[in-house]
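To: structure subgroup
Subject: Chain for Friday's discussion

All,

I'm putting the inputs and outputs inline so they're searchable in the archive.
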Amino acid sequence: MRIDATINSYYQKYNAAYKSKSQLIRVISENWFKDKMFCPFCTSQKINVYNNNHPVADFFCDFCGEEFQLKSKRQKLGKVVVDGEYYKMMDAIYSNSAPNFFFMSYGPYFDFINDLIIVPKEFILPGIIQKRNPLSYSARRARWTGCNIVLKDIPDAGRVYLIKDKNVVDMQEVKTMVERINFYRKIKDIEGRGWIVDMMNVVTRIRKQVFNLKDVYTYVPYLKSLHPNNNNIEAKIRQQLQILRDNGIIEFLGKGVYKKV
């Protein structure tokens, strides 16, 4: 099976049944996902659907057990994506029960999927969850508090494309990109994962393919703001660079010089 970026046939099938555009795209995207998607972790050709109102995820892989939640947005994904209840999301993160997230953007005429990315669950960290203002006391769900997922704060390695600019990425390439971050997925400690993500973001912010420790040290104040209780930031930077080097994210060229891989 090969996924494709067209959703027009699903639009034609469900358009007459739904007046609400939000309901329509939910039905279109979920049915396309059920019919077309493979598991990026084991490449199983079958993704299963949970029953309605499952507390965390929408889909699961029966072969490897990975769970997925799908978020769809018209036009570009942008910097943030609206998610569900804030406190449930935070509980899921701290209990290591958050699902892997798929983020889909689609065209204005329900014709094509523009982009589809997967963010492995280990990259869903407290720092990327943006708390929204609670609903008013007069609202039906008074004081309910939603959240946003801040996509721009997820490093490039944590955003794996399956469709990019309407073009489908080869399944084996997707699997290779996911396998590249297997080392990170094995880290269960949230603080440890947070440090690696912060360093990945620092490396991304450095606008040079080859960089040195001095380039990284310019981000000491930024990292200190994220980790105020750490009083030896430079030593922690060197430790994290070694982890990234050992796992093929960067290459060490010698004498404090590194290259992005």
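Points worth raising on Friday:
The mean pLDDT is 94.
The chain has two domains: 8-171, 190-260.

D.
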